[in-house]
Amino acid sequence: MPVGGFNGSVPFPTVTQFNDYARTGQIRYYITRSDSQDISAEAGFADDVTAWVKANFTPRIIGEVELYDLQSR
């Protein structure tokens, strides 16, 4: 699922929707680059989801990728 669309500015899914998808097992993993700490301001909606994931889950670092298991709570 492309969170926030191509450039991160599409308001889908919201953090609430993403949380629901993760809670119900519809989304299992979230993957982001480990160097993505400075996401552009225009990425808004994707930033919100990424911030929620990072606040609630511990990543497994694989090379330049952070892998979050959304069923690990």
Describe the model.
The protein has one domain. Strand 2 and strand 3 form a beta hairpin. The protein is of the alpha+beta class and 73 residues long. The protein starts with 14 loop residues before the first helix and ends with a strand. The model has no long low-confidence stretch (mean pLDDT 85). The protein has 2 helices and 3 strands; from the N terminus they run H-E-H-E-E. It has a 3-stranded antiparallel beta sheet, covered by helices on one side. Helices cover 30% and strands 19% of the residues.
Salient structural properties:
single chain; three-stranded antiparallel β-sheet; 2 helices; 3 strands; 73 residues; alpha+beta
Summarize the structure.
By secondary structure, the protein is an alpha+beta fold.
Please report which band the strand proportion falls in: under 5%, 5-15%, 15-25%, 25-35%, 35-45% or over 45%: 15-25%
Helical amount: 25-40%
Structural class: alpha+beta
The best one-word shape is: globular
The CA-CA distance between the termini, in Å, is 21 Å
What is the number of beta strands?
3
Provide the succession of SSEs: HEHEE
Indicate the topology.
Blueprint lengths: L14 H9 L5 E5 L10 H13 L2 E4 L2 E5 L4
Antiparallel strand pairs: 1-3, 2-3
